[in-house]
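Standup notes
- DV: blocked on the single-chain target, sequence here:
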Amino acid sequence: MNRKLFWNFALALALITVGCGTSSRSSNNNGGGGSTAISVAISTAPPGAVQTGLTATIAATVANDSANKGVTWSCAPAGACGSFNPTQTASGAATTYTAPATVPQGGSVTITATSVSDATKSVTVKVTIAAPAAITVTLSTAPPASLQTGATAAIAATVANDSANKGVTWSCAPANVCGTFNPIQTASGVSTIYTAPSTTPPPNTPQGFAVTLTATSVSDSTKNASVSVIITSTSPSVAVQLTTVPAAESIQTGATATFAATVTNDSTNAGVTWSCVPLNLCGSFNPAQTASAAATTYTAPASVPQSNLIAITATSVADNTKSASFLLTVYKAGTNNSLLNGQYSFLLTGLDSPGSYALAGSVTLDGSGNVSAGELDVVDAVPANAQLGVPVTGTYAIDATGHGTMTLNYTFNNFAYFVNFSFAATSGSHAAIVETDGGAAASGSLDLQSAGPSFSLSQIAGNYSFTLSGEDILQLTPQVQGGIFNLNTAGSITNGTIDSNDNGTFVSGAFQATATAPDSHGRGTVTSNGGATFVYYIVTPEVLRILETDANTIAGGSAFGQGNVSSYTNASLNGRYAFHNEGLDALNGQRVAAGQFTTSGNGTVLGGVEDTNAGGSTSYTVDLTGVTYSISGSPRGSLTFFGGAAFNLYLTDPALNLLDPNNTAGGGGALMLETDAQAFRTGAVIPQAMPSGANIQGNYAMNLVNLTGVTYGASQNQTDNNLVGQVSTNSSGYQGLVDYAMAGNYPVIGDSAAASTLSADATYPGRFTGTLTITPPANTFVFAWSPVAGTGQINVTYYQITTSEWLVVGTSASEVVYGVLQQ
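- DV (later): unblocked, structure below
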């Protein structure tokens, strides 16, 4: 029987059998020949995620398919899920799946293999479609921080996630005067040779001409990496450095001191001439001209000049534009009360047993130890305790080192009061000051009111940036405020914005208010349209000390003029900066930080470092490369750190010194206000002089605050510890005497030795690390300044602003400490 005849016979027989009603077992096996159903399974699975446009291998096996027809491949969502090659495969054979060019809605596709023999049998697998990782550019070989004109350096950049492998192109700024690259395009990781410009055209810094080198991805021109290089002249200019100076920065009338200066790059070996100011009142030199490194003898004037400060200057004979100076404070024999002579404003903030605390005022010091007149405002967390606009008198005393004490006496509601202070004067116009009567613990500054003796609204009319820190009295929560405003000659405050972070709740709104004219002490009041009230004291025409005095908030802070700046962009924050911020932490109770960074002028931090202490339980150091900031059309900008820490910035006059308002060696910068819910801090960003690498040397006023254990809320612990003193430093560390006080405790005055070791950070010039030991005297009633470490050492880090100003932050795991050193 042939095959065709056989199958015809079999089919006829089957039909007869069915027609006769003979029972048969039903079968879903459409392939014939058996009773087991077809099944489909994935034998080679694709990866769980496939990047857009890329391929993956996938295969399916069909069981019980006697026809062996394999599977067809399909996917969903249709039209946006990708493709297969081939679209039909035999059982176990692979197809190549190509992912769609874009991520479909929902972020995934469903791939289906369907039996050709039985379309009701299939298997599916879900695959996530991922967008390609963003291209990133990093500098894998960096040039030196500085190069001489015409010098060369290798530099390379690595590009990640560039599927085209196109590498980078090289450019620099400012255009046409910044140097060249060979080649100007390199593959990822391959070096180019940068050649510095042959000259250093203006403008440039005292250290040299700054250029920015940039590697830009060829595949994505929005991705780049930059580095700043200082170009120095191949012909070094004459430089003068003081190599011999007095050990102390104060001198008694009529006394002598030895000075010497070294001149470098002077081919004529002409040496220096010696001079001082104020002219005819500053003393004399013998000889008045010396060879390089040779000594002269300086004789101080017979009487104290009006400013108390003498500037000693050595000027190169060969190039009179090159010089070096040294400041001396002149004092009378025995006491030095004449160091402070005039009208001074003070502001201190801190804590007492009810909560936050602040006091501000003005005192007239007669140069002989008497406070002849003054005015005082005190506020704390109990509104009824406020003492506003109270007249004061008192006494003060200053020793030869600049360490001083002051007592203010006044009457309020028929009761007699007094407030005691200790201070460390850095000049005749500035002192760091703390309260030492045991009633409260507060730190701040005492500054000459150089805007006086006649004060008016017209003096202070202009644009201001401000920050305040303190407490929401109603909620018993930490609160910080900041913003900008304009004050006109009529006392109207307009065009203002006030930002507030109340225990993590950040709000911002318009700030409009009215200010009264200042009295003879430089004191006036401000009432906002929202009902908040403030007191201000004038220090200079661009610096105001401020207290909030209403029943809702207790806070103290400062307002600084913005100067005559016409535009605000990211370039307004361009170069090297030191910064600090301090306040309360949402989890740990306290948080302080200090650091330094270099900005690009286009919104990115090129490099830097920060030391943070959170509650004494977490202390860490972090590199700040990649931190971002934004300034666009307003003096109110923003700065965003890693981990979600965010701050508002309020730019100030570039000519101001934020730590010492009467110091003409300013630099401006910006005030800081934290805006996130992690912590509630204020601080400042201050231009940083190019670090010289030298250790901290000279005589310094030290002002430190220990916040260890401070908390808010139901279990408030409102006792910080404030310290001030005069210390003398050398290449290995410093030592001296300090005073410190804590609310409710006997103060420790004038007999506590401070000692520290110092070590320069080679990785981050301008940063120093060390240990600090403060040993109280043997007295039953004396408490330790460090409540955890006691008389032991704590770790501290210092950041240079200039050689005369340093920021301090505690880095021991148990100590939350911050403060300043001022020469």
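- Follow-up: The CA atoms of residues 34 and 60 lie 22 Å apart.
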